[in-house]
Design a protein that fits this description.
The chain has 242 residues and is α+β, with helices and mostly antiparallel strands. The protein is elongated. 27% of the residues lie in helices and 27% in strands. The chain has one domain (9-236). β8 (160-170) and β9 (179-181) form a beta hairpin. The protein has helices at 9-63, 74-77, 212-218; strands at 81-83, 87-89, 95-99, 102-107, 137-143, 149-151, 154-157, 160-170, 179-181, 189-200, 228-236. The chain has three helices and eleven strands; from the N terminus they run ααββββββββββαβ. The longest helix is centred in the N-terminal third of the chain and has 55 residues, at 9-63. The strands form three sheets. The protein has a five-stranded antiparallel β-sheet with strand order 3-4-5-6-7, with helices on one face. It has a four-stranded antiparallel β-sheet with strand order 9-8-10-11, with helices on both faces.
Length: 242
């Protein structure tokens, strides 16, 4: 009787079958881990973009209506003007809605070395007299068609899919809010802003199209597989409130 050397065809097929199952399992684990990593990275990037945008909006809105001389009226500190990209602003008006995704603000710089939201140094601020009147600074926030949030044309955040503003207003000198509206009337006095920002991952990471955040915002499902994240905040303009 001859001794058998090597593997039989049946043993080889069994070994190949077991190896295939092992390879499939390892591949699936790798794909799941990769998808989870991409999800975490995209979620973190979305939240970072939204938080940075909210932080900058909050910091800018807190400056709105600041005047260097507290005894000066708003009308004197902020005279009527026809401003580039903002249009006409009445005397005392420091916030103006341009469209659904952009608005203008005015304020006087408080101290030497102050910069605009775009990072530009504000010139000619008196170093030793904080009560000298200055020409108001104008800042314009807008969301362009490429999802870039800009201030005075300078890009400050990317990946913004949608932006929404609701303005807290009243219609007299009382420093209180009577209603929130996305389209303030011409005689309304804006004293607070509520805003929501939706960001999206730069690449598709899901297995299928769909996002509860996107559907909540737009009322329909997205056509892509990107990850969408929404954050919101509310800011009272401290120089226009008690």
């Amino acid at each position: 009787m001859h001794k058998q050397h090597g593997l039989s065809i049946i043993e080889m097929m069994v070994a190949l079958l077991i190896s295939s199952f092992l390879i499939l399992g390892i591949t699936q684990v790798y794909l799941d881990n990769r998808e989870n990593t991409l999800f975490q990275q995209s979620q973190g990037q979305n939240i970072e973009s939204a938080r940075f945008s909210i932080l900058l909006l909050e910091e800018t809105l807190t400056k709105t209506g600041y005047r260097r001389r507290p005894d000066e009226t708003m009308e004197a500190a902020f005279p009527s003007a026809n401003l580039p990209n903002c249009g006409a602003m009445a005397a005392g008006e420091v916030v103006k809605r341009i469209n659904a995704t952009s608005f203008c603000i005015r304020y006087q710089p408080a101290f030497p070395g102050a910069r605009t939201c775009s990072g530009d140094l504000i010139a000619n601020i008196p170093p030793n007299d904080p009560y000298v009147r200055m020409t108001p600074v104008t800042e314009i926030f807008e969301l362009d068609e490429n999802g870039v949030l800009r201030c005075n044309t300078q890009a400050i955040a990317t990946g913004i899919t949608a932006l929404n503003f609701d303005y807290g207003v009243n219609y007299n000198d009382d420093k209180r809010i009577s209603e929130y509206t996305p389209t303030p009337a011409a005689n309304a006095r804006v004293r607070a802003v509520q805003f929501a920002i939706m960001t999206a991952s730069p690449t598709e990471i899901g297995k299928s199209a769909g996002s509860a955040v996107y559907e909540f915002w737009f009322g329909n499902a997205p056509n892509d597989k990107r990850l969408y994240t929404m954050l919101s905040s509310s800011t009272s303009m401290r120089n226009l409130m008690p």
